[in-house]
């Protein structure tokens, strides 16, 4: 069953047109001619979105929105303003309106805005559901996976967790490799047993062997007491070797021997100690290239990648960005004492269009910075770091050629139109919704044009 939308406008014609358009999209639509009647209807129709005209007799749109949000904070409000009322639009967003739209309203823009707001509602619901499932040790449910690629990662985690197979996790820096490693351990057959993590790139070369394998008393000058290594500490559980590509060749030889014999020999010790552990390793390096350069042992690579999980970069899982952003909102609102309610469409377009070279960690830092600047209300484009806002502007010349395609459709040749669509698709990484937004046409129009020109993606 589709969600409900309430349209509030004193003009009968506007209510009728908006209702027809949104009903064609499959929504349940109700209308009201003024704010007072709208407020009286909320309990019965339970709207997800309210489209509220600003200029109405009696109570105006922003005043009505404040009253509604005081009792129904989860309702999404979109304010309808007259052309040129920028100051009112800004005031509406500051008072927790999701967004605004100007009269005369373009039908396609209306549909896109409502669909985006509805997507925000569904993402928020997913976030709330996620928060209910999260516990300190339930790492699997802490992984955001709305995108197809991350859903595939979740299925891989579930499958390998049922075994004791050695796992290699590959992914760029900041993609969440340690979270995946913890999910494999805590979801699997070794849950409740030790989970020990080692950053192979952070241990000085002279200490790697003693850290991993331990040592006995008198093994070297400062060894006044025997010490267990990470392998023994992880016995019966899992050992996570992060940045495995940084492990020096000498330590690689000993690690290979441990994987083969399932025994470790502490430094200075004469007796090998049997161990029962699962090895999970992770890297942001191309280990095959390191093998070719003689920096990584091929036989060790074969031992480590019995089961490989590739975590996609954030740019390839754009669908996950809104819910990750919501998670960071909640985190920093609590930790920093802020009151950020949402993010403007323009700002989210920038965020979803950026490549995020530092992935989730990069997004987290950018959201924290934007929240500190905004302090309360909504994050707008001006709160985002310049590198993110400048990312789209680098393509301004290309976008100027593309936008307004539908209005100028008769002025360009068929060949030029096809080329512009192809260019827009490429600029948006073949995301149809973003391409339609960029071209300022509806997704349906884009689909029909692609079909007309036999454009396949």
Can you describe what's shown?
The protein has 457 residues and is α/β, with parallel strands linked by helices. It folds into 4 domains: 4-131, 3-Layer(aba) Sandwich (Rossmann fold); 142-312, Rossmann fold (3-Layer(aba) Sandwich); 315-393, Helicase, Ruva Protein, domain 3; 396-452, Arc Repressor Mutant, subunit A (Orthogonal Bundle). Helices cover 48% and strands 14% of the residues. The protein contains 20 helices and 14 strands. It has helices at residues 12-24, 35-45, 61-71, 86-94, 107-133, 148-161, 177-187, 208-213, 230-233, 249-261, 287-292, 298-304, 321-336, 345-353, 359-374, 386-393, 396-402, 414-427, 432-439, 443-452; strands spanning 4-8, 28-32, 49-53, 76-81, 99-102, 167-170, 195-199, 238-242, 263-264, 273-274, 278-283, 307-310, 339-343, 376-379. It has a 5-stranded parallel β-sheet, with helices on both faces. A hairpin with an 8-residue loop joins β9 (263-264) and β10. α18 (414-427) crosses α19. The longest helix has 27 residues, at 107-133. It is elongated, with a radius of gyration of 28 Å. The model is unreliable at 392-412 (pLDDT under 50).
């Amino acid at each position: 069953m589709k969600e409900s939308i309430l349209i509030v406008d004193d003009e009968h014609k506007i209510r009728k047109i908006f209702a027809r358009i949104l009903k064609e999209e499959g929504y349940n639509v109700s209308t009201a001619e003024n704010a007072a009647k709208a407020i009286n209807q909320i309990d019965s129709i339970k709207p997800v979105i309210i489209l509220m005209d600003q200029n109405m007799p009696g109570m105006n749109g922003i005043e009505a929105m404040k009253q509604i949000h005081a009792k129904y904070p989860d309702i999404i409000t979109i304010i309808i303003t007259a052309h040129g009322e920028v100051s009112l639009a800004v005031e509406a967003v500051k008072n927790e309106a999701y967004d605004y739209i100007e009269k005369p309203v373009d039908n396609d823009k209306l549909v896109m805005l409502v669909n985006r707001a509805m997507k925000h509602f569904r993402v928020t619901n997913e976030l709330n559901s996620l928060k209910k499932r999260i516990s300190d040790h339930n790492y699997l449910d802490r992984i955001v996976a709305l995108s197809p690629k991350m859903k595939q990662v979740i299925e891989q985690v579930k499958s390998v967790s049922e075994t004791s197979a050695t796992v290699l996790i590959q992914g760029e820096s900041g993609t969440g490799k340690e979270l995946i490693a913890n999910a494999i351990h805590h979801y699997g057959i070794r849950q409740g047993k030790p989970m020990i993590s080692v950053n192979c790139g952070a241990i000085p070369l002279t200490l790697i062997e003693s850290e991993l394998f331990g040592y006995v008393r008198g093994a070297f000058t400062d060894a006044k007491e025997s010490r267990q290594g990470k392998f023994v500490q992880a016995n019966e559980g899992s050992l996570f070797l992060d940045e495995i590509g940084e492990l020096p060749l000498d330590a690689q030889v000993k690690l290979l021997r441990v994987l083969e014999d399932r025994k470790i020999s502490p430094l200075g010790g004469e007796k090998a100690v049997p161990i029962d552990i699962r090895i999970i390793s992770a890297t942001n390096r191309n280990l095959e290239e390191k093998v070719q350069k003689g920096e990584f042992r091929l036989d060790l690579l074969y031992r480590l990648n019995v089961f490989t999980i590739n975590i996609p970069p954030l740019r390839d899982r754009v669908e996950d960005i809104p819910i990750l952003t919501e998670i960071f909102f909640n985190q920093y609102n609590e930790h920093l004492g802020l009151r950020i309610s949402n993010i403007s469409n323009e700002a989210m377009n920038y965020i979803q269009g950026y490549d995020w070279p530092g992935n989730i960690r990069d997004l987290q830092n950018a959201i924290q910075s934007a929240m500190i600047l905004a302090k309360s209300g909504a994050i707008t484009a001006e709160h985002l770091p310049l590198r993110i806002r400048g990312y789209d502007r680098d393509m301004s010349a290309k976008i100027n050629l593309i936008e307004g395609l539908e209005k100028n459709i008769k002025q360009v040749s068929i060949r030029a139109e096809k080329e512009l669509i192809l260019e827009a698709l490429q600029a948006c990484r073949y995301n149809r919704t973003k391409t339609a937004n960029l071209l300022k046409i509806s997704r349906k129009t884009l689909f029909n044009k692609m079909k007309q020109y036999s454009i396949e993606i």
